[in-house]
Amino acid sequence: MLVVDDEPMVREVASTYLVREGFEVSEAADGTTALERVGAERFDLIVLDVMLPEIDGFSILTRIRRTSDVPVVLLTARAEETDRLLGLELGADDYVVKPFSPRELAARVRAVLRRTLGPPHAVDRMEFPGLVIDGTCREVLVDGRPVGLTPREFDLVAFMARAPRQVFSRTQLLEQVWDSSPEWQDPATVTVHIRRVRQKIEPNPESPRWFHTVWGVGYRFEP
Fold first, then answer.
1. pTM value?
2. What angle do the packed helices 188-201 and 151-161 form, to 10 degrees?
3. Number of domains into which the chain is organized
4. Which among 117, 135, 169 is the end of a domain?
5. Pick from 188, 161, 1: which is nearest to 81 by CA?
């Protein structure tokens, strides 16, 4: 994986702990180097600082998402909800707020990699009118057209589709799809991902066909 941060101490702490946990880690100290490395090499995951000089983390994430769905965990000193949600809107898979615990970072990385490399809620193939969810190749088709989803978005779609009409709270989805909890992650993360899924899958995101809001409770998949 690639750790991108302009602070040498942060890179050292993060990389040392991740290596200790069994990961193979490379480092980049700025956005330009990070983009060059991503363009030339394959990484299973990127840990990306938001507050980078010259090219900030949000801009780097935007460029990465144009060509790759590699999982990205953001490191951010910005605790404001709007900044966290912006990262998720741009395609981040998770975020960790500085100052962070290396143990927490490693746990988040492991959780993201489990979902990406070996999802716990794998399915073979589910077919609904106008919608196909293929777990073997991790692909979603809408009216026969493939839809580009991030690994987290696919897992959310597959998990909800396995239990049609069942209502899930945001806390339940955090626990089941994110392997997380409100103690570690803002439940608004789920809201953002539902919105992104609707934008990509629903013919009319403002009037969803499949992914419905149950006000005051959560969300359900309607086949």
1. 0.63
2. 90
3. 2
4. 117
5. 188
